[in-house]
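Hi V.,

You were right to ask for the full record rather than a summary. Here it is.
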Amino acid sequence: MIEIGVNIGDGASGTLAGLISALTGEQMSAFNEVGGRAASNAAVAYHRDFDAAGGWRRKGSARSGRSSFGADVAKGWSFRTADREGAVIGNDADHYGFKVRGGTITPKRVEFLTIPMVDEARGRRVADYEIFTGRRLFRVKGKKALFEPLGKGQGVRAVYALVKQVTQQPWPDAVPPDELIAGAFSVAWRKEMADYIEGR
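Predicted structure:
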């Protein structure tokens, strides 16, 4: 899980800082919740655009197929909490934290990790791929891959590479820029405060 904290205090003008200090904890929490929800929505929009632009694909990759990972990351953003100090938004999409921090993945219950080598295999476990295609995958002695037959006289092709571990660096631009999150928070927060002052 990834969490980001946001608040309005940093860089506030003297006048705004004075107004902020006059607010009760309950009022501040309410404003911060509005800002936090706006920041979460901005993160969703960022990752929808990031995914649509191919941001989760490696540079130079010839693969055109897409998994649901990018959509899952976009949907994974949510508002968590708000108090007088600020708000927290988070994302609990599967594997997103690994993309942000990087690290090494090793298999836990099987001998190898399976890395898709064809577009149709992306986002699918081996068993799901076999159901989807109706083809049984098999090993070839001396090769570290799972293969499938292509049809009479057409040979075979590798569908999944078999590896003992994968190490990745943090993914570039995996986290929405601070200024985007803070900007969305600030705009919504200030509008909520203006509405509050006008209503008094």
